[in-house]
Design goal:
Blueprint lengths: L1 H18 L55 E6 L13 E7 L4 E6 L5 E7 L2 E6 L7 E6 L4 E4 L4 E6 L5 E7 L7 E2 H6 L7 H8 L3 H8 L7
Antiparallel strand pairs: 1-2, 2-9, 3-8, 3-10, 4-7, 4-9, 5-6, 5-8
Helix pairs in contact: 3-4
Keywords: Apoplast, Disulfide bond, Manganese, Metal-binding, Secreted, Signal
Organism: Coptis chinensis
GO molecular function: manganese ion binding
Length: 221
């Protein structure tokens, strides 16, 4: 009996150790400082006294309205995260509405802190994501009204309206602050710009092409 208890205790101890890990960050980075007067609160936001909370802290009407798709990509993402709905703080979930003009594109991007589940409300979308190295496998599907597709956390993904009419989709994300990294804008629209030498070698293109791409207006969609 004594040895069985010891084994059970050891297993429980290792399980507890395995589960004891830092929470996932809700920002890009957090630089440590010793003087807290210059510090900021991370992994969420300061909490309101629960007695002072109101229904409006959990409400947002911004997803009623179509986004303006009059841009070079022909799409617009309207977020409903903790910045729009304070009551989402610590709850680990958020939403977006995505509007697409005919042949509009939500370009390749990643969410560093969230998995995304997208449902098509109107139109026809070609969607997909690419797995990590070494396979770089493309998973792609054509979605129709009512169809759902999941984009795993951190993987590059996209949606393209292949119809002649507008399209609308809603998506749930598994973070109150999922973040978004548009691939083209991040690489060619960084501030300050990434070196021509780096990009020319990385993409196997000449520096004139790099300069041309860096000179483009990269939307924040």
């Amino acid at each position: 009996m004594g040895s069985a208890i010891l084994v059970a205790f050891t297993v429980l101890a290792f399980a507890s150790f395995a589960l004891a890990s830092d929470p996932s960050p809700l920002q890009d980075f957090c630089v440590a400082i010793k003087d807290t007067k210059d510090g900021v609160f991370v992994n969420g936001k300061f909490c309101k006294d629960a007695k002072l909370a109101t229904a409006n802290d959990f409400f947002f009407s911004g997803l009623r309205k179509p986004g303006n798709t009059s841009n070079q990509l022909g799409s617009m993402v309207t977020p409903a995260n903790v910045d729009q709905i304070p009551g989402l703080n610590t709850l680990g979930i958020s939403l977006v509405r995505i509007d697409y003009a005919p042949y509009g594109l939500n370009p390749p991007h990643t969410h560093p802190r969230a998995t995304e589940a997208l449902v098509v409300l109107e139109g026809t979308l070609s969607v997909g994501f690419v797995t990590s190295n070494p396979d770089n496998r493309l998973f792609t599907k054509v979605l129709y009204q009512g169809d759902v597709f999941v984009f795993p956390e951190g993987l590059i993904h996209f949606q393209f309206n292949i119809g002649k009419t507008k399209a609308v989709a809603f998506a749930g994300l598994s973070s109150q602050n999922p973040g978004v990294i548009p691939i083209a804008k991040s690489v060619f629209g960084s501030n300050p710009p990434i070196s021509d030498d780096v990009l020319a070698k990385a993409f196997q293109i000449d520096k004139k092409t790099v300069d041309y791409l860096q000179a483009q207006f990269w939307t924040s969609n």
